[in-house]
Specification:
Helix content is 48%, strand content 15%. It has 404 residues and is of the alpha/beta class. Strand 10 and strand 11 form a beta hairpin. The longest helix is centred in the last third of the chain and has 26 residues. The chain is globular, with a radius of gyration of 21 Å. It binds nicotinamide-adenine-dinucleotide (NAD) and magnesium ion.
Length: 404
């Protein structure tokens, strides 16, 4: 294909039809993925769509895009899904095991976009097929990074990072010569409370925490951005994806979210990936990889933006950053405990049971109380995850009482 032909046909860079599975299709990442799929129906067809509880949204997507199967994780919603799909030819299924079975169906490409550690088993099921896995579900890597990366190596799967920072790093990382790379620079927007003091943050509500200045995302990751735990999770995620130690990964606050991350080489060169803050760019990169496709995102206008600024992160006001770095450096089950406690604490905050600053406190208390257990197998990880959630729940109760 010539350059001109490629320009005339958006998506024409991808030559072979691709069969896709989307885990978490009703979420923010899932919907953005389907938005791109819909614009390129000549290339992409769907094997499976899966969701947690949003059965109406799932049925609507399935009626429109006609996958082979639509799966709702909450088994109580099976009847409703089956009824909504009657006469469409789309198979309905329900339950956690059915989500994993859907991930195992033969396909060319799977988007792992379930939120939280609940995505672990379905993501592993996709990885074990040795297929291309577009990887958004960062909590899975934080709680079971060694196992996930081991299974990627065993199965020959290709992991394509979708998180905007990791996708940016992937685009400028010379994987043939990682020894030439001095450090990775992970950029962070700083979230909606970047300029607030601790006392100003103390009484922030979930609505205020979820209102991110640059990105539109699901509720959990939006709260993680406000506490900056998101950057902590991404630090650990980057360590696993690029096999880099904590000391070689720097966090840099860049409030405009235009530079999505950078890689610094030993000759002083720093390579960056830039773009408007729209997840459809990294998703399009993963959908078309190793080609490129047209994405309907605002084109970057640097004259209009005029100024890009940078600051050091402040771990006094954002203690989640140092908790995550400690977890990464000490290793073992601490990253798992950090993630599980954060999931419990964010859920309690979204239910208005604990305050904003209690989130990091619950994570810290859980990490301190977590017994030194080994967790090398999936079974051990699931047991440790359960224990961390129990401890975090108890810590949350303590803060709830303290708040009243
Ligand atoms: P979301 O809450 O909008 O969507 C989550 C999806 O997972 C939904 O489809 C939901 O139905 C499904 N789900 C939830 N619990 C489930 C369960 N127990 N079993 C099966 N399915 C379940 O979340 P999101 O913002 O789309 O984020 C998804 C993942 O991508 C997260 O790990 C997040 O950290 C990561 N990520 C998101 C963004 C973003 O811009 N939204 C950016 C980078 C990374
Ligand atoms: Mg990110």
């Amino acid at each position: 294909m010539t350059l001109d032909e490629g320009r005339k046909h958006p998506g024409a860079g991808v030559r072979e039809p691709r069969r896709l599975t989307i885990l978490g299709s009703t979420g923010s990442i899932g919907q953005s993925t389907l938005n791109l799929v819909q614009r390129n129906r000549n290339i992409y067809s769907l094997v499976a769509l899966t969701a947690g509880t949003r059965v109406k949204a799932l049925a609507e997507q399935a009626r429109l895009l006609r996958p082979e199967v639509a799966v709702i994780a909450d088994a109580r919603l099976y009847g409703e899904l089956k009824e909504a799909l009657a006469g469409t030819g789309v198979e309905a299924a329900a339950g956690d095991a059915a989500v994993c079975e859907a991930a195992r169906r033969p396909s060319d490409w799977c988007m792992a976009a379930i939120v939280g550690a609940d995505g672990l088993r379905p993501t592993l099921a996709a990885v074990e097929q040795g297929k291309v896995v577009a990887f958004a579900n960062k909590e899975t890597l934080v709680c079971a990074g060694e196992i996930v990366m081991r299974r990627v190596a065993e199965s020959g799967a290709t992991l394509l990072p979708v998180d905007s920072e990791h996708n940016a790093i992937f685009q400028v990382f010379d994987s043939e010569r990682p020894g030439d790379i001095e450090r990775i620079i992970l950029t962070a927007s700083g979230g909606p409370f970047r300029e607030l003091s601790l006392s100003e943050m103390a009484d922030k509500t979930s609505e205020q925490a979820v209102a991110h200045p640059n990105w539109s995302m699901g509720a959990k990751i939006s709260v993680d951005s406000a506490t900056m735990m998101n950057k902590g999770l991404e630090l650990i995620e980057a360590g696993h994806l690029f096999d880099f130690p904590s000391k070689a990964i720097e966090i840099l606050v860049h409030p405009q979210s235009i530079i999505h991350s950078m890689v610094a080489y030993q000759d002083g060169s720093v390579l960056a990936q830039l773009g408007s803050p729209d997840m459809r760019t990294p998703i399009a990169h993963a959908l078309a990889w190793p080609h490129r496709m047209e994405a309907p995102v605002a084109r970057l206008n640097l004259v209009e933006i005029a100024k890009l600024t940078f600051e050091n992160p402040d771990s006094k006001r954002f203690p989640a950053l140092s908790l995550a770095r400690t977890a990464m450096e000490k290793g073992g089950i601490l990253p798992l405990a950090l993630n599980a406690a954060n999931e419990v604490a964010v859920a309690a905050f979204l239910r208005r049971e604990i305050g904003f600053l209690d989130i990091a406190a619950v994570v810290e208390e859980t990490m301190e109380r977590m017994p030194e257990v080994a967790a090398d197998s999936l079974g051990e990880i699931l047991i440790a995850d359960k224990e961390a959630r129990r401890l975090a729940q108890a810590a949350s109760e303590g803060h709830r009482l303290a708040a009243q």
